[in-house]
Amino acid sequence: MPKKSTTTRARAVARRAPQSGNGSGGSLTDLLWRIDRLERQVMRLSELVRAHAEDEDRLVRIVAEDHEVLRRELIAKDGGKPVGSLRAKGARPKVGASH
């Protein structure tokens, strides 16, 4: 994910909270500014969550492809016999199992 430029940071600085006056108009302005800021934060968090999910999906695909390649290599190495897991063969006893 590309980093944002410094112009975005400059715009964020320009959006700082307005100075509250003594009148009631200042508190309404502050409230509207805070709501706007929260909405921007929610949008940004949504973008980050979406990007994270896409990255995670890519990583899962890469691991699955690597697993498949390794499995094929093991099959080829063992002369075409399918490679089963140790659990399927019963080689490892279950934890806590009584005999």
Explain what this protein looks like in three dimensions:
The chain is mainly alpha-helical and 99 residues long. The chain has a domain at 26-79. The chain has 3 helices and no strands. It has helices spanning 6-14, 24-77, 86-89. It is rod-shaped and about 80 Å long. The model has no long low-confidence stretch (mean pLDDT 77).
SSE blueprint:
Layout lengths: L5 H9 L9 H54 L8 H4 L10
Listing every helix as H and every strand as E from the N terminus to the C terminus, the arrangement reads HHH
Radius of gyration: 28 Å
The helix tally amounts to 3
> How is the main sheet built?
none
Residue fraction in strands? under 5%
Search tags:
single chain, 99 residues, mainly alpha
Brief overview, please?
With 99 residues, the protein is mainly α. The protein has helices spanning 6-14, 24-77, 86-89.
